Amino acid sequence: MYKRNDGLTEDNRLQNRFTSYLCRSVHNRRIDYFRGKEKPLRIEIMLEDMDYLVTEEQDRILQFAEYDALRQALKEIKEQERYILLARVIEEKSFSQIAGETGLSYKGAAAAYYRTLERLRKLLGGGRRGF
């Protein structure tokens, strides 16, 4: 018959900590899963809402010109830099996740991200912070 873990012995305390760790891990993974499912929907809705914000023809022309400049600047950076930038900005991945996917360290992924931002600022002709 099942005997409840009272936590009095070292083994029982260790088992309690491990069980707690496992429950928290499953809970966090479940939240990450649902956030991942929700994220593409949020991006699609945001893109649809942007169409309503642009009403005048001149605004549309400026918008396309900015997109073309950004698209050209993204073509000029390396593939890994582009992946790191888009994973961080679009997919909202952490530097730890990006580092695991690219084989870099946490600091290496963060440094590559910020270097890429600076390079894009220079390519787009903007010297201001807060890209």
TrEMBL record:
<feature type="domain" description="RNA polymerase sigma factor 70 region 4 type 2">
    <location>
        <begin position="68"/>
        <end position="120"/>
    </location>
</feature>
<protein>
    <submittedName>
        <fullName>Sigma-70 family RNA polymerase sigma factor</fullName>
    </submittedName>
</protein>
<keyword id="KW-0731">Sigma factor</keyword>
<keyword id="KW-0805">Transcription regulation</keyword>
<keyword id="KW-0804">Transcription</keyword>
<dbReference type="InterPro" id="IPR013249">
    <property type="entry name" value="RNA_pol_sigma70_r4_t2"/>
</dbReference>
<dbReference type="InterPro" id="IPR036388">
    <property type="entry name" value="WH-like_DNA-bd_sf"/>
</dbReference>
<keyword id="KW-0238">DNA-binding</keyword>
<dbReference type="InterPro" id="IPR039425">
    <property type="entry name" value="RNA_pol_sigma-70-like"/>
</dbReference>
<dbReference type="InterPro" id="IPR013324">
    <property type="entry name" value="RNA_pol_sigma_r3/r4-like"/>
</dbReference>
<dbReference type="Pfam" id="PF08281">
    <property type="entry name" value="Sigma70_r4_2"/>
</dbReference>
<dbReference type="InterPro" id="IPR014284">
    <property type="entry name" value="RNA_pol_sigma-70_dom"/>
</dbReference>
